Amino acid sequence: MFDPELTLAAEAQPRFDYSQPTTARSRVARMGATLVTKRYWKELESAVTYRDLTIPQDADGPPIPIRIYTPNTAILSGGAVVFFHGGGFMVGDLNVEHYRCLKWAQETRTIIVSCDYRLSPENRFPAALEDCTGCFGWVADNASDLGIDPSRIVVAGVSAGGNLAAAVSLFNRDHGLRPACLQMLVYPALDDRMTSRSMNTHTDQPGWTRADTKHMWAHYLGPLRDNVSPYAAPSRASDLSGLPPAYVLTAEFDPLRDEATDYALRLTSADVAVDFRNFAGTFHGFDVVKESRLAQYAMNDQIFAINRVMEATAKPKPTLVSATANASL
């Protein structure tokens, strides 16, 4: 049963036909643009400055659009969050998670860099991963200009973006690249095999369905599925050791619940520190329902996780020894 404060939101969740991703993409883009244009989050926008720009792609891919959120405060955390939106690899842009990025930036005093990666089916795997690894690498390489510590970068994502955050963590480990200090996986899509219990019992829920998942993997991976890379479906990775600490959040009535739960358990078994949260009475995407206390709690929990890692990784300030004390030694 859904949490009572989420019931109306569950009934109002829009349905998209992901067999036609370009049509769904247009609908999502219009919704997001309308909210941003009308300044639906004007109170948050008054506390956070954001700017859009494009960054170069290291490989042969096109430039990557990003949005940088900077809290309007004299004291920043000194770290950054590289964030990937959801949308089944098929839909979404820099507006679709504008609220979450504003909220995270304000409440954590941390720079948030949101990545507008290429979408499928026009750009199948590994295009999105190339953009996301490129964005993470750009933030690390430009840490001085951004005013951050490159060792204190969180990689985060929701849904398909959670997949990409996990995949960036795997890719960076395997290629000897700079690791994130935390991987935040919010109701992530991780397993293209679609065999979990939740995938077969929570088939037609608000926010995301089994049919949506089937379309997602078909568009992202294409028809050839004999040898799926763990960078495309992180659950296929045989070795999870040596990965960054993780924060994993799931929703009770989400078909993706069990694959994320299994991934969290496997990370734990590989001696990776994991904070795991399953929110009862919730559905995929519930945490942006501002009218729900449970959603607010989940959002605040994510904020706490970012603040916690920023505090834990902060470098101690040097101790100053006064001239008088020094002379007496």
From TrEMBL:
Pfam families: Abhydrolase_3. It is an enzyme of class 3 (hydrolase). Its EC number is 3.1.1.1. The keyword Secreted does not apply. It comes from the Bacteria. GO terms for molecular function: carboxylesterase activity. Residues 81-286 form the Alpha/beta hydrolase fold-3 domain. Keywords: Hydrolase. This is Carboxylesterase NlhH. It comes from Pelagimonas phthalicica. The gene is nlhH.
